[in-house]
């Protein structure tokens, strides 16, 4: 089933899409393919949203997303237009998928060989190999049912769930429990629990606030594989932009939107450079709260300022982009460094926000796979530490935290970067707020808590302004590049079905 098999109702209409992240790019493609006249306005100098690229002295960094997961979603997206991903970029399956260092000196490589991974689990806990099989069997079932009937099919109203087919499909799925309790049913060893839970970072949550439904991410991880698109995630952006241009989408960069006026059939979208764009409909892939609080008059908002203040947000991040002389042999393309007890780190994100003093973090070294991202004889490396949104973010704090991270990498991966760094840039809370208008500087948006999942996320269709729509990570299905691609289809479908 294609997410948007037949989009009607928009042919011949003019649509302005605000924001060139994956949600905006996806929506623009679907609408242009359906015959709409689409103009996409992007605030920054390049398209891709959080998937921007940083190029400095021969180093090219993916500034945001760096994991290519759920290849079936990309195939389905391009397939809607009669195309395929390999027309735009090549994929390489990583081996290992990633390496994990624990801060007690232990380490493990997660491999593209399921049986080898099973043996790893068994080595930590007798019977864990069998539990690994059972967990992945449930994870696969959750993924297949969840994707087809709860992700690709939007259910924005409560009555959409009071349906015999929904009840039949959802029978046995872990819809209400928390991930921590769910994983504990299978594994006692805390390191095995962490291996099944680390993907929650991609959803902006913790084991104690993310629904157990997201055990489906383990199927993504262990069964579907981890890939690298040649040229990085930026190459995926380039591919979608190329597709969009072939469909007739017009792109305007350096066009920060300052206001939205009007309603269906008579919208005016103003930009900072003084341009005004007229349209029949408007779609915002900009931050949802920013769109409502800053771009619309108070009478046209669905939510109050207090609503946005009361939400649980996914972490922000401290990012350190490093060009390093020489190799980093102990690190893989993807490397995770975890405390043996990571509850303290999550508590410093969600419970008592402060800069983590014993952080869990992620290291990416794409130069292990792609020799075009760094000059010869050098390594391209970035470190990402999840931190609480809204933290104070000053040069002094960044310098102190930079030193903490560099020291921690040396201590726990035996990789001393000091004295070898030739390029260095940081990006953190204030940058997310400034560059992406992200609420509280969150790196991802609304977290996937029980009260912020599915129909409890803000809708695609504004109920305050006829002809205004939303796409991207704050809407359904949620956070992550694949989810934002799907969100674009759901938004286009909502526009086709809207009786404006």
TrEMBL record:
Top-level taxonomy: Archaea, Methanobacteriati, Methanobacteriota, Stenosarchaea group, Halobacteria
Transmembrane domains' residue ranges: none
GO biological process, one term: carotenoid biosynthetic process
Keyword entries, A-Z: Carotenoid biosynthesis, Oxidoreductase
Identification of the protein by name: Phytoene desaturase
SUPFAM superfamilies, A to Z: FAD/NAD(P)-binding domain
Entry EC number(s): 1.3.99.26, 1.3.99.28, 1.3.99.29, 1.3.99.31
Any Pfam family hit: Amino_oxidase
Pathway(s): Carotenoid biosynthesis
Key word Zinc present: no
Domain annotation Amine oxidase: ranges: 23-495
Chain coiled-coil ranges: none
GO molecular-function terms, A-Z: oxidoreductase activity
